[in-house]
Amino acid sequence: MIMKVITKSTEETIKLGEKIASQIQGGDIILLQGDLGAGKTTFMKGLAQGLNISENITSPTFTLMNVYPLKSSNTKQLVHIDTYRLKDEQELIDIGVEDYLGKPNTICVIEWPEKLPHLLENKKTTIVALKNINENQREIIVEF
Ligand code: ADP
Ligand code: MG
Fold first, then answer.
1. Which of 67, 73, 109, 111 could tie 82 with a disulfide, CB 3.0–4.6 Å?
2. What is the pLDDT of residues 16-75, one digit of tens each?
3. pTM for the full model?
4. What gap in Å lies between CA 51 and CA 56, rounded to an integer?
């Protein structure tokens, strides 16, 4: 299934993330594709809100991976990965990414997934591609 949406504000992208959150489950790996400023982290904020996470979401640019426990769900945790500053895939393996990736009790969301060709090989993924149209508009394609 493919859906294409144009959002006209930050808030609309958050709302879209919240909506998509109701369609995902443990084991899912969501790939957020798009350039700097395309709205990947903003969309992730919506996903987190939709999963009832109240913590403020910031991109784990330096820590590489943030783990948010889920309260009201069969799924144990939401993991946010940002590979923007990743040197190689081993760096993520060293901090235990394989304990989370594709595990039935975990939802993973990855910014800059192109940097993980081996870790994502043969894994079923959901692609969210974000494109900057102008200052406040983003084209967002969700491919389940
Ligand atoms: P990325 O993680 O892709 O680098 P961010 O989500 O961190 O992008 O940043 C997107 C920026 O663009 C934010 O400052 C956000 O407020 C702004 N923005 C403006 N319009 C939109 C929109 N329609 N959707 C998402 N972000 C938007
Ligand atoms: Mg980001």
1. 111
2. 999 999 999 999 999 999 999 999 999 999 999 999 999 999 999 889 999 999 986 789
3. 0.97
4. 13
